[in-house]
Design brief:
Number of strands: 0
Helix content: over 70%
Structural class: mainly alpha
Order of helices and strands: HHHH
Shape: elongated
Strand content: under 5%
Largest sheet: none
Keywords: Membrane, Transmembrane, Transmembrane helix
Length: about 90
């Protein structure tokens, strides 16, 4: 059985200041996993950040039911986390 870390470096072909498509995909997947974990772990904080981002545009953003919004945000984060992990497994196995 081959080491996945060594296999990871074997798939990378970055050289001469250019970034290979494998590293771009890997970076995007790691960002998706991190963002999915953040959204699933702290959904209320993410909602508050979204509200504060809309405030400078003079938009008032209030969920009708905060409990439902937190639950839906957590589910969205878990789905993003699962898809990120599945994508990571796919590019490492392929």
């Amino acid at each position: 059985m081959s080491c996945p870390i060594l296999n990871l470096f074997a798939k990378c072909s970055c050289s001469c200041g250019t970034i290979c498509p494998f590293c771009i995909r890997l970076t995007m997947i790691v960002i998706a996993i991190a963002f999915g974990a953040l959204v699933a772990w702290k959904p209320k904080k993410v909602i508050q950040i979204q509200i504060s981002l809309y405030r400078p545009f003079n938009w008032k953003l209030e969920p009708i039911s905060m409990e439902k919004e937190i639950r839906n945000t957590r589910v969205m984060g878990l789905v993003l986390l699962i898809l990120g992990i599945l994508s990571l497994i796919y590019i490492l196995v392929r």
